[in-house]
């Protein structure tokens, strides 16, 4: 009987010790007896996900809320990487949240960072494929890589253009242009010096041009006056002739009855007409014999004997 009691105590002790060891092991592994529910989301990245692995952490504004479940190529678009993540249930991931890749220190390992999200935005709902998709944006390293490619491309183009600019042909053309510019400067200096040396002559030419404008204006006025005088004389002759013609048609024309005043008027008209013709002939002769007298007033008109 005593032997049975000892075995019972030993068995009880072993079982209790085994249970305590299991509890200790679960505690060390932080194993939870209650399974936490997870929500699944899809993310499509267009950049390289090198360094991102399954079970890599998913952080929401710095707080770990899940992990990466699967990484694959999008069968509908080979330029996208399809990533499935699991996030703690009831994590408020909204439509204006977006995912980007972050780097864990200097190890090169990456994780997914969820950013954005406003208070009034709606939660992400399932689409027609029964997927809840989080929008993605290029990471800082991705932007830097793209910018480096663009800068490299632009530098290459700049080097090519610089090589073309400083080609032997362009250098020769530039040298010719400098020589032509130098000759132009010399010619400009000579012209300037010529103008300075002939300042008096240029002043005289300007004065002559001024005198020419004044003289021409006076000559044109004289010609206009002469033409007006001729026109007036012609009109008076026409009026007198019409008057005589009317008298003849009436039959009252009689040389004896013509008044002395009518004859005097006729003589005055003829004298004015004659004077106008004489002035016009003199002006025409002056222009014909020596036009320089009218333009520059340097030559004097030659007078005849007794004038």
UniProtKB/TrEMBL annotation:
Domain Mce/MlaD: residue ranges? 41-117
Instruction: Using the record for this protein, list the coiled-coil segments as residue ranges, or answer none.
Output: none
Q: Does the keyword Disulfide bond apply?
A: no
Any idea which UniProt keywords this protein has?
Answer: Membrane, Transmembrane, Transmembrane helix
**Which superkingdom?**
Bacteria
A Pfam match: MlaD
Asked if the keyword Transmembrane belongs to this entry, the reply reads yes
Q: Which residues cross the membrane?
A: 7-28
Q: Which PANTHER family does this chain map to? A: BLL5892 PROTEIN (PTHR36698), MCE_MLAD DOMAIN-CONTAINING PROTEIN (PTHR36698:SF2)
* The name this protein goes by in its record: ABC transporter substrate-binding protein
Species of origin: Malaciobacter marinus
Specify the taxonomic lineage: Bacteria, Pseudomonadati, Campylobacterota, Epsilonproteobacteria, Campylobacterales
Whichever gene encodes this chain, its name is mlaD
């Amino acid at each position: 009987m005593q032997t049975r009691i000892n075995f019972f105590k030993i068995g009880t002790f072993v079982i209790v010790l085994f249970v305590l060891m299991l509890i200790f092991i679960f505690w060390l592994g932080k194993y939870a007896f209650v399974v936490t529910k997870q929500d699944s989301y899809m993310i499509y990245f267009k950049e390289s996900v090198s360094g991102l692995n399954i079970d890599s952490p998913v952080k929401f504004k710095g707080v770990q809320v899940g992990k990466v479940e699967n990484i694959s190529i999008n069968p509908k678009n080979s330029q996208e990487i399809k990533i499935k993540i699991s996030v703690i249930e009831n994590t408020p991931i909204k439509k204006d949240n977006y995912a980007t890749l972050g780097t864990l220190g200097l190890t090169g390992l990456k994780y997914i960072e969820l950013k954005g999200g406003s208070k009034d935005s709606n939660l992400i709902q399932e689409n027609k494929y029964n997927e809840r998709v989080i929008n993605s944006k290029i990471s800082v390293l991705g932007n830097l890589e793209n910018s480096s490619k663009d800068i490299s491309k632009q530098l290459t183009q700049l080097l090519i253009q610089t090589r073309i600019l400083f080609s032997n042909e362009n250098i020769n053309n530039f040298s010719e242009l400098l020589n032509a510019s130098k000759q132009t400067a010399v010619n400009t200096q000579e012209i300037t010096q010529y103008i300075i040396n002939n300042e008096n002559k240029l002043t005289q030419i300007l004065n002559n041009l001024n005198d020419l404008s004044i003289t021409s204006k006076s000559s044109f006025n004289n010609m206009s006056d002469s033409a007006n005088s001729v026109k007036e004389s012609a009109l008076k002759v026409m009026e007198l002739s019409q008057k005589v013609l009317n008298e003849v048609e009436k039959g009252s024309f009689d040389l004896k009855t013509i008044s002395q005043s009518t004859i005097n008027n006729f003589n005055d008209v003829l004298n004015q007409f004659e004077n106008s013709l004489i002035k016009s002939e003199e002006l025409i002769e002056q222009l014909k014999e020596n036009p320089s007298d009218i333009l520059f007033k340097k030559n004097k008109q030659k007078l005849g004997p007794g004038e």
